[in-house]
Structures are given as C-alpha cells and as structure tokens.
C-alpha cells in the first residue's frame, strides 16, 4: 500500500513534457483540474480523457507506474462514488432493503469517479515530469506579482516544493518501519478495517520522530550554508520561454475552447 503512493515522485525521462518550462506545466495542470468541474456531459469527459491520454503518451512515463498511484486513494475514490450513488435523490432505478439507488445517483457516481481519476492522474503528471527545484522556480515566477503586496513568494514556493519532495521520503520511511515491526511480530494485514487502522497507530510515533529529525537536519544544513531566500539570489538555470512552451500554451487554449464548445453545443 505504501509503495503505491506516487504523489510527489519524479520520473526521469527525455520527453517533451520534461523539457517544458515548469510554469507551462503548472498553468496547464491548474486549467485541466479547473475545467474538469465545468464538464457537463459525457462528451466532455471523452475529450478530457483523450487529452490526458495524449499528455501521458508525451510524458513517456509508464502507464502502470501512473495507475499505481490510484491504489493509494482507492478507498477515498470508492467512498465518494458510493456517497453519490446512494444519497442522490431522483427517479428510483432499484432498491434492496432500505437502500435506494436512483438513475441520477448512478450518473452522478460515474461522473464523480471519472472526475477524481482524471484529477489525480492529471496532477500526477506534473510531479512526474517536474523536479522539485523546477517546481520551486516555476511557482516563484508565477506568483512574482504578489511580491508587490508583501507576499513571501519565495518562502511559500520553497515550502510547497519541500513538502512534495518529502512525501516519497516519508513513504519510504514508513515502509521501512513497517517491515521492521513485522519482523518483530507486528500484524498490519489481518482483521477488519478498524483493527488494521488501529495496528497502524504504533507507526506514528517513530514516523513523527523521523520527520522532525529530517526537518531539523534540513534547517541546520540550510543555515550552515548561509541560505537566505528571496531577493538577490541568482538562478543556475533561469527560466526562459521557448517555442515549444508557446505551442503548449496554444494547445491549452484549444483544450479550454474545446471544453467550452462541447458544453455549449453538445
């Protein structure tokens, strides 16, 4: 289960998406997620699926590796689908006992499931194709205008980047702790859902200790190197838009226009 969490991981490759400016990928991810909530029919989801399939193909990230991340949120996905399936009012499709399922609930559950899957896959592509350093630089550039109103742009970008970078590290640490406790007789897999949840409690203390230790080591390392964020710092690889980035923006505009057209005419 822990190994299935792929959020925050970077997959090295030589694809077109890896070479794009991180600002393009950030804007593209935001637009893709936002316009998922504007889709009003199945034609829109088919269009979004085709667009996502094209992006996955261009990223050269193995589909199995991408889909593996869905296992970690399978419970949340099933919960959201079940909630929409059983609690959406409308015309009854069938019922068993006190449980009543409506046609509107079935449609809502399908659309919600598709929306969550596309959202997770679309956001994962960004982290798979963007290093933490690129992500930090891209966020800082995009939020640059906020400096005029005294928003600590660099610090916010750095915190978000470090948080994403620490996710796979903490997952790896959790896996090591679980294996160590299983070697000492701990059982994390037998019993019902509540029992399995309780068995994970002993993991929290060593995991929090490890997390605080890593955070302290990182802070000391940054301080020892006289790190001062923000003004006056230069970039080893300054961000500059290229022709391929402009083409990517054009494709994003076409995607947005396609969603709007589908909602209006289909």
From TrEMBL:
<keyword id="KW-0472">Membrane</keyword>
<comment type="subunit">
    <text>Forms a stable energy-coupling factor (ECF) transporter complex composed of 2 membrane-embedded substrate-binding proteins (S component), 2 ATP-binding proteins (A component) and 2 transmembrane proteins (T component).</text>
</comment>
<dbReference type="GO" id="GO:0005886">
    <property type="term" value="C:plasma membrane"/>
</dbReference>
<comment type="similarity">
    <text>Belongs to the energy-coupling factor EcfT family.</text>
</comment>
<dbReference type="InterPro" id="IPR051611">
    <property type="entry name" value="ECF_transporter_component"/>
</dbReference>
<dbReference type="InterPro" id="IPR003339">
    <property type="entry name" value="ABC/ECF_trnsptr_transmembrane"/>
</dbReference>
<keyword id="KW-1133">Transmembrane helix</keyword>
<feature type="transmembrane region" description="Helical">
    <location>
        <begin position="246"/>
        <end position="265"/>
    </location>
</feature>
<feature type="transmembrane region" description="Helical">
    <location>
        <begin position="30"/>
        <end position="58"/>
    </location>
</feature>
<keyword id="KW-0812">Transmembrane</keyword>
<comment type="function">
    <text>Transmembrane (T) component of an energy-coupling factor (ECF) ABC-transporter complex. Unlike classic ABC transporters this ECF transporter provides the energy necessary to transport a number of different substrates.</text>
</comment>
<keyword id="KW-1003">Cell membrane</keyword>
<dbReference type="InterPro" id="IPR024919">
    <property type="entry name" value="EcfT"/>
</dbReference>
<feature type="transmembrane region" description="Helical">
    <location>
        <begin position="70"/>
        <end position="89"/>
    </location>
</feature>
<dbReference type="GO" id="GO:0022857">
    <property type="term" value="F:transmembrane transporter activity"/>
</dbReference>
<protein>
    <recommendedName>
        <fullName>Energy-coupling factor transporter transmembrane protein EcfT</fullName>
    </recommendedName>
</protein>
<keyword id="KW-0813">Transport</keyword>
<feature type="transmembrane region" description="Helical">
    <location>
        <begin position="109"/>
        <end position="130"/>
    </location>
</feature>
<dbReference type="Pfam" id="PF02361">
    <property type="entry name" value="CbiQ"/>
</dbReference>
């Amino acid at each position: 289960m822990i190994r299935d969490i792929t959020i925050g991981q970077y997959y090295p490759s030589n694809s077109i998406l890896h070479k794009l400016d991180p600002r393009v990928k950030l804007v593209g991810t935001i637009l893709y997620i936002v316009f998922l909530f504007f889709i009003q029919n199945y034609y829109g989801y088919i269009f979004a699926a085709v667009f996502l399939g094209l992006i996955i193909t261009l990223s050269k990230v193995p589909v199995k590796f991408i889909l593996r991340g869905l296992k970690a949120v399978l419970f949340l996905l099933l919960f959201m689908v079940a909630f929409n399936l059983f609690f959406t009012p409308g015309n009854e499709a069938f019922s068993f006992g006190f449980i009543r399922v409506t046609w509107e609930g079935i449609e809502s559950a399908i659309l919600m499931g598709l929306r969550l899957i596309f959202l997770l896959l679309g956001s994962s592509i960004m982290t798979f194709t963007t290093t933490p350093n690129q992500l930090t630089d891209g966020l800082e550039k995009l939020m640059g205008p906020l400096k005029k109103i005294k928003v600590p742009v660099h610090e916010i970008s750095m915190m978000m980047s470090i948080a994403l970078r620490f996710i796979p590290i903490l997952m790896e640490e959790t896996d090591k702790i679980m294996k160590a406790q299983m070697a000492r007789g701990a059982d994390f897999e037998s019993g019902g859902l509540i029992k399995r949840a309780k068995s994970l409690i002993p993991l929290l203390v060593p995991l929090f200790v490890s997390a605080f230790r890593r955070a302290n080591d990182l802070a000391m390392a940054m301080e020892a190197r006289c790190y001062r964020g923000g003004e006056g710092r230069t970039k080893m690889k300054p961000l500059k838009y290229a022709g391929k980035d402009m083409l990517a923006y054009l494709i994003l505009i076409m995607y947005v226009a396609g969603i709007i057209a589908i909602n209006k005419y289909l």
